[in-house]
């Protein structure tokens, strides 16, 4: 079976060694297929053990212990055990890679094998989202230490060895990846597919024509709203349950958004339901916070969130003697059209808007210089405490924040520092209310892609929804089947 | 550093002084030799310029690989490991030095060597270009002959109109139209992707046909008009044509046997000039059709600040263009009417 | 991308001279070949530049989101509206301005800088010619994409930067044409006579050579203008062209292609304008060249 991956995202992979793949998070499908996962997200958004069987917090929450599945072998026949996990994790910690795990405090974690099949990791603080943060992260993928040592890092990255459902047959980075069923896979009778091929494709439109011409049987993360109908007419189209809403970041360090009134004007001038309706045919749930329906701790409304009110927006703009701003975003088609629509709405309120588009490097550069005024971004994650979570956009320690408020920092830190989910929920609710109260940045709606599968093809994540991590869909490839061929 | 490195091959060649002296006596070889020598600064300029331009762009491989969470100290340490802390001209010198020994280095983003990336990508682009040239040639030659047989006839006028139209259509629009027509509506060709020749010959041809047609269409009109012009001119003015006609050789035979043979040299010259253009246009075509050629790789490499890969590709582009220009210049002399007269007399 | 201008550079104009009565008919035909595209281009320029001034045309940006995705022939929006509610006809007109501006500026830069380089190189000859031509070779052998990207990335994508980036194509192309033209003229009797009579070099260049090269360079300008419009769209396809919300025909096509199978009109409307305009430029250039060659 051939799966298409969008060029701008998963369709590029530099190499598939967990410790050097800078695109690991985007390459989740490949990595999960080759290495399996310690923990995987299953139906209903539950973290469940795959190569691990369970975890527990101890030492006041600072130590996380993980028990591993016994009797598992890497596809090169060497044993999967605690020593292998420790070797991988320590290697990850010293990797020269953007994929390197990040911890809140600088003291490196202490990693120990506490038994042949149990591992512990001790931090100097409580990291409640640790297990949730494994999704799409380097710690989740355990490579065969023997293979790394024997092949050398470079060769290993081109033909990695793991304990996942598939093994690498051929790998030409950015071009084609052919995986074959792992005969030693620990789950009897799995995977269903004997061959799994990944190919990059230029765009959603190109993917549509490619699927129509039979060049592929599945496509991950279709995100062009105009094409949904066309895909639905011919293929199984599954909306990925979204976890990351679009938000408008306001740079509170410089004018005009250092002024609360200017921020309020943006809230009042933003008609989110209309945006959803005219651009996305009301597909997405309009929200007011950094959470989304498929993520943890979701609330649709937030007390104190300023609703659309054109008159008040105009009034504020008048009071301020006019507002003119720049609005930036990444140059993806969807983000650009949301940007344009936002600019149209804000202009109606008398705000002068200049749009700027960035590629990823340019965007990072803009944040480094701090000379931006507003940015259309996504914030949030399956667990708000992980990855591109709320802290990424709102905590002053993040390089990508627009807000520098010690009180908010404290609230977000507290929410990640307890393993009690009820307390975490209260903490995040408070943080959301605080953001609304200070008008730190409006939220729009979570945009998630669609997973596309040809008739007769299916599996968890592909045709039955699983929550996305940041913006990457989780697909459990070991269960994916293709009824059209014997393979 | 760089200048002495360039001078080196020349000095080494000096060892075979006798051979050189013998070669120097042949005027044609002298021209080739001079042109090849003058190609060296061009290739040097191309790699030098791109190295410095890429270096001037914001961001480098170290920060790209380490990402946003790395501390400045980590970035610095990694830069030193990658050798990025040295001044740019020293790094360029290193690159040039190893490039002269045939080592193009390793990609900054993936574990592949630049040579192996080029080895994978270049054949795809070359196949596209060659395929496009074949299509253009096969259609344009009969068309050009027909036009020349009856100048200002129906075929001639139609070809003239279509050739202008084919030069006016944007290749990306043409690609979109062809994909909708042939890949989606008729399902004759795949819309995207590349099937390697080693996998299936038919699949390979099917996967490269649409992109090659996009590349070939403007060439068809262009070559046909070129050929027609050249043929008509010969038929009107060349002595040997008049002689052949006087001997009672049929018009068709004069056209296809005598005139066409001479015109081929001209067509080859034109192809030489087009080669550079074609390789360039493939950047867009490859990205529309998701073909793993060097143009597509170049786009990726530039956005990753992957200097070794960019340099490798730029060098290949440069070599292709320089060789094409050399061939053109050599044949240009052949094409020049005065030189041609000299040749036909001898 | 490389230098498609090279295509035009050597497109030969071979017109057969036909004697007698037929020639009068042909001359009439030929003037049709010139006047039709010229009139069309003038009309196009009028609609893009003058029409929005004398007649109220909706704004090309900041349309109403409520009126988005209106079909063709809607009331008040003859070509409909796009996904964010902007009037497509207005975007075509204002986008046409941008496309024309870019094409004109790139050709003007090429004509002045490249033309001067080629002229001087050909006339002075010797080492200067060799060095200039090698430098131009570097630019021709150089994947301009690297340069374009550096400009777009380093300076930020704007119309001005797109113009400079595309000039990387036009300058060497013009230099080559100008050099070839000047080489032909250099040893003509009137130039030799001027040189022998002690006329200053700059005077020979400007008064004797340049005016005689002008027809050839001007036709090349027209042909190149069409190509520049196409190339500008190519940059938009790669994401380095005119940034939205500003419209150009090229970036309208590039934006529309992401859902062409659903709403092909967003690609075909600007494509038709781009094609017809490029066609007119090519026809006019070709027609003029044929006329001058015949002279």
Describe the structure.
The complex is a heterotrimer of chains A (487), B (346) and C (295). Chain A has 487 residues and is an alpha+beta fold. Chain A contains 14 helices and 20 strands. Chain A has helices at 28-35, 82-93, 145-151, 153-158, 204-212, 228-234, 260-269, 272-280, 310-319, 333-348, 360-369, 390-394, 406-416, 421-437; strands spanning 2-6, 39-42, 46-49, 52-58, 63-68, 110-115, 118-122, 166-172, 176-181, 195-201, 218-222, 236-239, 245-250, 323-330, 351-358, 374-378, 443-446, 450-453, 457-458, 481-482. In chain A, a hairpin with a 2-residue loop joins strand 6 (110-115) and strand 7. The longest helix of chain A has 17 residues, at 421-437. Chain B is built from 15 helices and no strands. Chain B is an all-alpha fold. The longest helix of chain B is centred in the last third of the chain and has 39 residues, at 251-289. With 295 residues, chain C is mostly helical. Chain C is 73% helix and 0% strand. Chain C contains 10 helices and no strands. Chain C has helices at residues 5-9, 21-54, 88-124, 126-141, 144-155, 159-186, 189-196, 201-237, 249-256, 265-294. In chain C, helix 2 (21-54) crosses helix 10. The interface between B and C is large, with 61 and 55 residues.
- Amount of helix of chain B: over 70%
Number of helices of chain B: 15
Q: What share of the residues of chain A lie within helices?
A: 25-40%
C-alpha-based Rg of chain B, rounded: 25 Å
Give the SSE layout.
The complex is a heterotrimer of chains A (487), B (346) and C (295).
Chain A: E1 2-6, H1 28-35, E2 39-42, E3 46-49, E4 52-58, E5 63-68, H2 82-93, E6 110-115, E7 118-122, H3 145-151, H4 153-158, E8 166-172, E9 176-181, E10 195-201, H5 204-212, E11 218-222, H6 228-234, E12 236-239, E13 245-250, H7 260-269, H8 272-280, H9 310-319, E14 323-330, H10 333-348, E15 351-358, H11 360-369, E16 374-378, H12 390-394, H13 406-416, H14 421-437, E17 443-446, E18 450-453, E19 457-458, E20 481-482
Parallel strand pairs in A: 1-10, 1-11, 14-15, 14-16
Antiparallel strand pairs in A: 2-3, 4-5, 5-7, 6-7, 8-9, 9-10, 11-18, 12-18, 13-16, 13-17, 19-20
Chain B: H1 2-13, H2 17-24, H3 27-56, H4 61-66, H5 72-82, H6 88-100, H7 114-149, H8 154-168, H9 171-185, H10 201-237, H11 239-246, H12 251-289, H13 294-303, H14 307-335, H15 337-345
Chain C: H1 5-9, H2 21-54, H3 88-124, H4 126-141, H5 144-155, H6 159-186, H7 189-196, H8 201-237, H9 249-256, H10 265-294
Helix pairs in contact in C: 2-3, 2-10, 3-4, 3-6, 3-8, 4-6, 5-6, 6-8, 7-8, 8-9, 8-10, 9-10
């Amino acid at each position: 079976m051939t799966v298409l991956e969008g060029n701008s995202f998963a369709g590029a992979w530099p190499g598939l060694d967990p410790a050097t793949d800078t695109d690991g998070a985007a390459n989740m499908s490949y990595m999960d297929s080759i290495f399996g996962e310690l923990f995987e997200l299953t139906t209903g958004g539950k973290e469940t053990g795959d190569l691990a069987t369970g975890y527990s917090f101890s030492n006041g929450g600072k130590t996380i212990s993980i028990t591993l599945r016994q009797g598992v072998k890497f596809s090169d026949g060497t044993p999967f055990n605690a020593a292998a996990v420790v070797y991988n994790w320590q290697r990850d910690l010293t990797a020269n890679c953007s994929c390197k795990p990040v911890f809140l405090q600088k003291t490196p974690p202490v990693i120990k094998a506490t038994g042949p099949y149990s591992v512990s990791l001790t931090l100097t603080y409580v990291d409640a989202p640790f297990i949730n943060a494994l999704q799409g992260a380097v710690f989740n993928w355990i490579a065969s230490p023997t293979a790394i040592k024997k092949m050398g890092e470079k060769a290993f990255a081109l033909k990695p060895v793991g304990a996942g459902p598939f093994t690498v047959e051929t790998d030409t980075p950015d071009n084609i990846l052919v995986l074959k069923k792992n005969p030693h896979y620990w789950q009897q009778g799995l995977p269903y597919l004997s061959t799994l091929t990944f190919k990059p494709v230029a765009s959603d439109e190109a993917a549509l024509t490619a699927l129509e011409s039979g060049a592929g049987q599945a496509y991950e993360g279709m995100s062009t709203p105009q094409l949904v109908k066309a895909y639905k007419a011919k293929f199984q189209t599954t909306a990925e349950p979204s976890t990351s809403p679009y938000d408008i970041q306001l740079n509170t360090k410089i004018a005009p958004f250092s002024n609360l009134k200017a921020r309020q004007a943006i809230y009042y001038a933003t008609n989110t339901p209309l945006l959803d309706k005219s651009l996305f045919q009301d597909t997405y749930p309009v929200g007011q916070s950094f959470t989304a329906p498929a993520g943890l701790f979701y609330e649709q409304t937030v007390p104190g969130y300023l609703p659309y009110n054109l008159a008040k927006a105009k009034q504020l703009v008048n009071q301020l003697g006019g507002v003119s701003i720049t609005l930036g975003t990444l140059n993806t088609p969807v983000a650009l059209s949301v940007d344009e629509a936002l600019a149209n709405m804000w202009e109606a309120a008398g705000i002068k808007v200049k749009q700027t588009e960035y590629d990823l490097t340019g965007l990072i550069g803009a944040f480094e210089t701090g000379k931006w005024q507003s940015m259309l971004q996504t914030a949030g994650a399956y667990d708000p405490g992980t990855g591109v979570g709320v802290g990424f956009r709102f905590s002053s320690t993040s390089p990508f924040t627009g807000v520098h408020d010690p009180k908010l920092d404290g609230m977000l830190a507290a929410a990640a520092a307890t393993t009690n989910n009820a307390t975490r929920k209260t903490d995040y609710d408070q943080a959301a209310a605080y953001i609304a109260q200070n008008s730190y940045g409006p939220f729009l709606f979570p945009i998630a892609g669609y997973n596309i599968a040809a008739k007769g093809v299916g599996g968890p994540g592909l045709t039955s929804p699983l929550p996305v991590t940041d913006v990457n869909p989780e697909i459990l490839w070991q269960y994916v089947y293709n009824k059209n061929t014997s393979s | 550093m760089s200048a002495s490195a360039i001078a080196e091959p020349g000095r080494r060649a000096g060892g075979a002084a006798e051979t050189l002296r013998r070669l120097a006596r042949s005027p044609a070889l002298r021209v080739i030799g001079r042109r090849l020598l003058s190609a060296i600064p061009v290739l040097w300029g191309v790699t030098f310029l791109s190295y410095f331009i890429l270096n001037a762009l914001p961001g480098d491989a170290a920060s790209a690989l380490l990402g946003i969470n790395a501390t400045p100290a980590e970035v610095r340490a990694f830069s030193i490991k990658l050798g990025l802390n040295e001044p740019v001209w020293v790094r360029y010198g290193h690159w040039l030095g190893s490039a002269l020994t045939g080592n193009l280095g390793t990609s900054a983003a993936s574990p592949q060597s630049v040579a192996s990336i080029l080895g994978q990508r270049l054949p795809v682009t070359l196949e596209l270009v060659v395929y496009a040239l074949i299509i253009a040639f096969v259609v344009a030659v009969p068309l050009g002959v027909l036009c020349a047989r009856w100048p200002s006839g129906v075929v001639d006028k139609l070809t003239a109109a279509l050739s202008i139209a084919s030069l006016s259509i944007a290749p990306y629009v043409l690609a979109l139209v062809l994909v909708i027509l042939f890949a989606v509506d008729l399902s004759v060709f795949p819309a995207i992707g590349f099937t390697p020749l080693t996998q299936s010959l038919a699949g390979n041809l099917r996967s490269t046909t649409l992109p090659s047609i996009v590349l070939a269409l403007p060439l068809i009109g262009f070559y046909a008009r070129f050929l027609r012009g050249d043929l008509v001119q010969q038929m009107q003015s060349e002595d040997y044509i008049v002689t052949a006609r006087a001997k009672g050789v049929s018009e068709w035979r004069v056209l296809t046997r005598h005139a066409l043979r001479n015109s081929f040299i001209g067509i080859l010259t034109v192809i030489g000039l087009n080669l550079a253009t074609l390789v360039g246009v493939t950047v867009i075509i490859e990205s529309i059709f998701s073909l793993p050629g060097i143009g597509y790789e170049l786009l990726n490499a530039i956005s990753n600040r992957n200097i070794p890969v960019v340099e490798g590709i730029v060098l290949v582009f440069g070599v292709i263009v320089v060789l094409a220009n050399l061939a053109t210049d050599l044949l240009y002399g052949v094409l020049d009417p005065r030189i041609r007269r000299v040749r036909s007399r001898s | 991308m490389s230098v498609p201008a090279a295509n035009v550079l050597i497109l030969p104009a071979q017109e057969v001279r036909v004697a007698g009565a037929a020639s009068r008919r042909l001359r009439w035909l030929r003037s049709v070949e010139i006047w039709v595209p010229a009139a069309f281009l003038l009309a196009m320029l009028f609609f893009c530049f003058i029409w929005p001034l004398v007649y109220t045309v909706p704004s090309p940006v900041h349309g109403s989101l409520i009126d988005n995705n209106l079909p063709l022939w809607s009331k008040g929006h003859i070509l409909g509206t796009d996904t964010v509610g902007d009037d497509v006809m207005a975007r075509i007109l204002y986008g046409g301005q941008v496309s024309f501006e870019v094409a004109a500026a790139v050709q003007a830069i090429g004509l002045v800088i490249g033309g001067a380089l080629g002229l001087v190189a050909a006339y002075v000859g010797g080492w200067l010619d060799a060095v200039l031509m090698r430098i131009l070779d570097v630019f021709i052998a150089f994947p301009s994409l690297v340069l374009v990207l550096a400009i777009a990335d380093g300076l930020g994508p704007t119309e001005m930067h797109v113009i400079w980036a595309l000039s990387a194509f036009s300058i060497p192309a013009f230099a080559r044409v100008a050099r070839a033209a000047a080489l032909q003229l250099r040893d003509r009797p009137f130039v030799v006579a001027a040189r022998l009579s002690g006329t200053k070099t700059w005077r020979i260049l400007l008064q004797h050579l340049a005016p005689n090269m002008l027809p050839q360079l001007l036709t090349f300008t027209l042909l190149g203008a069409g190509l520049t419009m196409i190339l500008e769209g190519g940059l938009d396809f790669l994401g380095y062209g005119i940034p939205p919300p500003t419209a150009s025909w090229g970036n309208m096509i590039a934006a529309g292609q992401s859902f062409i199978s659903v709403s092909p009109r967003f690609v075909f409307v600007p494509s038709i304008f781009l094609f017809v305009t490029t066609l007119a430029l090519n026809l006019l250039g070709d027609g003029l060249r044929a006329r001058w060659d015949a002279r």
